[in-house]
Amino acid sequence: MSKQSFFMTNQRISADDKRIINNGRTVDCNQLVPIKYRWAWNFYLDGCANHWMPTEISMQRDIEQWKNPDAFTDDERHVIKRVLGFFATAETLVGNNLVLAVYRCVDNPECRQYLLRQAFEEAIHVHAFQYIVQSLSLDEGEMFNMYREVEAIYDKDEHAMSCTSSILDMNIEDLKTTKGLQTFIKNCVGLYVITEGIFFYGGFVTMLSFGRQNRIPGTVEQIQYILRDESIHMNFGIELINAIVDENPKIWTDEFKAEIDTFIKSAVTLEKAYIKECLPNGILGLNCDLIEEYVQYLADRRLEKLRLSAFYGSKNPFPWMSEIIDLKKEKNFFETRVTEYQTGGALEW
Ligand SMILES: [Fe+2]
Ligand SMILES: [Fe+2]
């Protein structure tokens, strides 16, 4: 990067001058106002409005149920551990990508404001899984090393991390080239569409199925908050990707679209392998076929949002998931918690 890019000019910034990427100064004061990308600011406000902390949620009933040898079958305990083990390190993987790769490349201040909020939410999600593992007295070594020791999880993480490392290998000046921008877009698809939009959903649907039977309710409530956050993360990411493509239409070649299409389909294959590992036998009315159908249905929706063609033609076998995700319909859903944040008046210096 040329040294010149570290020096400010004395000209005022107008909203029209702003771009998502390649604003010319990676290190800057990040002048938020005038805001051009109102959607990015609104995602930030939505994220703040959804604030929560893992320790607000009681884990007492989960602890009692988990200790009861008759409360879960072996298959049920297996899938719960596989889901928690995947999430326990996937959240830090996402946080790394955000902070090391995405924040570095996206130099628009409105988007960076949201990225800072998202990074904090990823820290909260990491905290949530640490809190669940600790509450249930699960084997920490087993849970936090599962990504190394279970092949289906290792493969998903490798798929996700390959994108981050390609950004780190890149010089920031490369973002001015078609190849560099395509590399960055592929990373964003890997993070926002695949990891947060596909790899998380086998786990989400499984855990929420326990919730529908009033089992491990504290864990399920944490997952519901995470699902709410993640659907905002993914929607922000898709807006971001489409905005970069709109500002740089020449990167969206047929060849690159085919590469993204193949990338998403390869993720669906990995998610199916993970589901088979989690659910070798059916539980709670769930089986591999149904969840695979669901993952294909989600992949089609993600492809369409990226303005690509749906491929699988699968139906949604879990319409109740849509109701949970569309939280505007669930007005009373998140009103059960007691919130006592330390306010300014309560601070003692
Ligand atoms: Fe997360
Ligand atoms: Fe996320």
- Here the CATH topology equals Ribonucleotide Reductase, subunit A
Estimated share of beta-strand residues: under 5%
CATH structural class? Mainly Alpha
Distance between the termini: 44 Å
Average per-residue pLDDT, rounded, comes to: 90
Largest sheet: none
Say what oligomer this is: single chain
CATH architecture: Orthogonal Bundle
Number of strands: 0
Q: What value does the Rg take, in angstroms?
A: 21 Å
Flag low-confidence runs: 328-333
Number of domains: 1
Order of helices and strands: HHHHHHHHHHHHH
Query: Structural class, from secondary structure content?
Result: mainly alpha
Counting DSSP H or I runs of 4 or more residues, the number of helices is 13
Ordered list of secondary-structure elements with their pairings:
Blueprint: H1 38-49, H2 60-67, H3 74-105, H4 109-135, H5 140-144, H6 146-149, H7 151-168, H8 178-199, H9 201-211, H10 217-247, H11 254-278, H12 288-305, H13 319-325
Helix pairs in contact: 1-4, 1-10, 3-4, 3-7, 3-8, 3-9, 4-10, 7-8, 7-11, 8-10, 8-11, 8-12, 9-10, 11-12
Bound molecules: fe (ii) ion (2 copies).
One fe (ii) ion is lined by residues 94, 122, 196, 230, 233.
